[in-house]
Amino acid sequence: MRTAVLREPGRLDIEDRPRPDPAPDEVLVAVGEVGICGSDLHYYEHGRIGDYVVENPLVLGHESAGEVVAVGERVTDLEPGDRVALEPGVPCRRCAHCKRGEYNLCPDVTFMATPPDDGAFAEYVAWPADFAYRLPDSVSTREGALCEPLSVGIHVARRAEVGVGDSVLITGAGPIGLLAMEAVRSAGATDIFVSDVVDAKLRRAEERGADATIDPTEEDLGAAVADATGGEGVDVAIEASGAKSAIAGSLDAVRRGGTVVFVGLGDEAEVPLDVLDIVDNELDVRGSFRYRNTYPAAIELLADGAVDAAGIVDFEADLEDTDDAFQRAMDPETVKGMVRIGK
Ligand SMILES: NC(=O)C1=CN([C@@H]2O[C@H](COP(=O)(O)OP(=O)(O)OC[C@H]3O[C@@H](n4cnc5c(N)ncnc54)[C@H](O)[C@@H]3O)[C@@H](O)[C@H]2O)C=CC1
Ligand SMILES: CC(=O)[C@H](N)C(=O)O
């Protein structure tokens, strides 16, 4: 089968590899579409993310969906012909976190495209059947692949406990910020503000229904949000850029008693936080890491037409052109590129 393999930073080669066989609990999936994520771009550019270093050739891609072509002998609920979205992180199922149901925190997770585990820029992937979710006819294979970043958005909306009528600020209008916007809207948020430092991203957020957008290089984020909320601040701030200034800005923009959730992963792990401000204003400050139990909700939201995930896509490319697609995806105005491999 053909695969796109990262052998050294800045170079993806198309290589033949043996087609995997499904284990007894696995399905063999002919991959249809795969999204290019910021973490794929980071490995492509730098060959590492923090302690995860690409030491051996690595197949990138963890936002994927496709068609089941074979099932292992113990798989009873999927069959060849089913289209499925693949949840890329498979936890150990045994540790304390897995037992508590917070399997996204499992320290022994196998996560596609995270060294040493290969991802989905390949014609076939064998994957545990219980992490492959059947797509109804009303959900496209592309939308199935986008269940992954949508899941990040759903989890952050759940972590923020967004409620009906809430006002929400989202800093960063990349795929995560834009899909968090879809998730918080479906959770009942009515006033959604989005900030970004790239004009095209702000326009994109407006086209996709943001009530107001803010460029923090042109106006103070906290002051702009205060103006727009009668001086009070938003109920919830979701930080989805990883930028140091947006981390501080999201704390300034939230109302007393409000909630700030950090999902962005910045290059700088340490940023000053005014703890007295957090205490005095009784803020809930939370992190949000990947997702758990979100794929069924993502598929339902897509099937109901309650969220538009495919609208974030700027372009698609063939597997052979994955290297070019990565170059295009690095343009700061691009939100999402997809690689089409099969049906
Ligand atoms: N916690 C988690 O589970 C996950 C975290 N992430 C992280 O979430 C963040 C967002 O992911 P993507 O949307 O894929 O990234 P992205 O890089 O495509 O989007 C980030 C956006 O933030 C904007 N930005 C930069 N500085 C800003 C500032 N000062 N204020 C407002 N916006 C600013 C950029 O222009 C860009 O549009 C990244 O840091 C990523 O690493 C991504 C997936 C999962
Ligand atoms: C950080 C990412 O972009 C990726 N989705 C991951 O969860 O590792």
Automatic annotation (TrEMBL):
Coiled-coil boundaries: none
SUPFAM superfamilies: GroES-like, NAD(P)-binding Rossmann-fold domains
One BP term from GO: protein homotetramerization
Gene3D superfamilies (alphabetical): Medium-chain alcohol dehydrogenases, catalytic domain, NAD(P)-binding Rossmann-like Domain
Enzyme type, top EC level: oxidoreductase
EC identifiers of the protein: 1.1.1.103
Keyword Methyltransferase: no
Domain of life: Archaea
Region (Disordered): 1-23
Protein family membership: Belongs to the zinc-containing alcohol dehydrogenase family.
Protein known as: L-threonine 3-dehydrogenase
Origin species: Halorussus aquaticus
